[in-house]
Specification:
This protein has helices at 13-29, 61-67, 84-93, 108-116, 124-135, 144-154, 159-166, 170-184, 189-196, and strands spanning 2-9, 33-38, 45-49, 75-79, 97-100. It has a 5-stranded parallel β-sheet, sandwiched between helices. The protein starts with a strand and ends in a 7-residue tail after the last helix. The chain has 203 residues and is α/β, with parallel strands linked by helices. Helix 2 (61-67) links the parallel strand 3 and strand 4 (75-79). The relative contact order is 0.10.
């Protein structure tokens, strides 16, 4: 019999009970499996509850340490469906798995399989967000200069800063920006900012 170990930093008792109930049901259907909640983060899976946070600056030092555990998918972050911004931050910057607590179906077999192989698991809701993010520029071709401008704008640089950095006139930078806006189908700076925050500029 194989014992799957879990370490929990989940504060919300309903979330923890729901997850452990799913684990119990899984083990009842698969008698060769068992699970155990242990008191240290040297487990197959470390559960983190970020459902009350707005940004990564809200997390504690202990949670951050667990988030940075070696091995992809060894930490599972629980988020609600409305925490899309935080989900994007986690998907871009960390190797943790993500679980949407508002989903009706928990694909526990897939989650366990991924964590055992030290692979990232992302639940269906957040996977759709990631696909939308990746697909925004599908079929679009940007010149090397436009890519640099896109990356600069995404990081908050102004046209003047980009002009100095790229050794180009402000007029040239403005031309690149207009072409980018045309390709993305946006009409003003506000729309442009909203769109470019949703995807990684093309490499």
């Amino acid at each position: 019999m194989f014992t799957f170990t879990v370490f929990s930093r989940v504060v919300h008792p309903t979330l923890l009970n729901g997850f452990l109930s799913s684990l119990k049901a899984f083990c009842e259907q698969n008698p060769e499996w068992n699970y155990e909640v242990i008191r240290h983060d040297n487990a197959h899976l470390t559960l983190l509850d970020f459902s009350a946070y707005d940004t990564l600056t809200d997390i504690s030092a202990a949670e951050y340490e667990s988030l940075c555990l070696p091995g992809e998918g060894t930490a599972l972050v629980m988020l609600s469906a409305c925490q899309e911004k935080l989900a994007h931050q986690l998907m871009r910057s960390y190797r943790c798995s993500l679980l949407c607590v508002d989903e009706r179906l928990l694909e526990l077999r897939e989650l366990i399989k991924h964590s055992m192989k030290k692979q990232r698991y992302i639940s269906a809701h957040f996977l759709r967000l990631q696909e939308q993010e990746n697909n925004i520029t599908d079929g679009m071709i940007f010149t090397d200069a436009e890519k640099k401008v896109l990356i600069g704008l995404k990081s908050g640089k102004t046209g003047i800063e980009l002009s100095r950095e790229m050794f180009r006139s402000q007029k040239t930078i403005s031309t690149h920006k207009r072409k980018i806006m045309s390709k993305l189908g946006v009409k003003n700076d506000l729309e442009l900012r909203k769109v470019i925050q949703k995807f990684q500029p093309p490499q």
